[in-house]
Amino acid sequence: MKNRIAAAVFGVAAAAVLTACGTVSANPWRADCPEPVTDGRGMLAIKDGRTLKCQIKVFTSNMACTDKITNPAGDDGYACTNAANEGAVFFFDKNGVLKSHEFLQR
User: How many helices (H) and strands (E) does the chain have?
Assistant: First the structure.
């Protein structure tokens, strides 16, 4: 009997937690990092000269990334790979605006 009561209480508590999680806003966009242009599938539309580093970081948050690279011109870099070893390298100007990028495939 105690196990049934405990299971019922746990089930109600779990449902309440999951419902509360759904009501929390996960909007990452702020004044200093505005919502970017996306394509028809909701993917980031990467545009040299327009896309910001903060926007790319949001869209690559589930990838393995590093920002400890620079190109020969001294531009800040950001490189990411996914589980299939596909990746991208991005370079930004001093204001965090995308200057160039390249997609890499294995």
Answer: 2, 4
Q: What is the pLDDT of residues 84-101, one digit of tens each?
A: 989 999 999 999 999 999
- Give the predicted TM-score (pTM) of the model: 0.69
The CA-based angle 97-49-61, given to 5 degrees, is 50
Instruction: Name the residue among 45, 49, 43, 86 with its Cα closest to residue 64.
Output: 86
- What 3-state DSSP class applies to 99? strand
CA distance 59 to 66: 14
DSSP state of 37: P
Rounded to whole angstroms, the Cα distance separating 91 from 73 reads 10
pLDDT per residue as tens digits for the range 42-54: 889 999 999 999 9
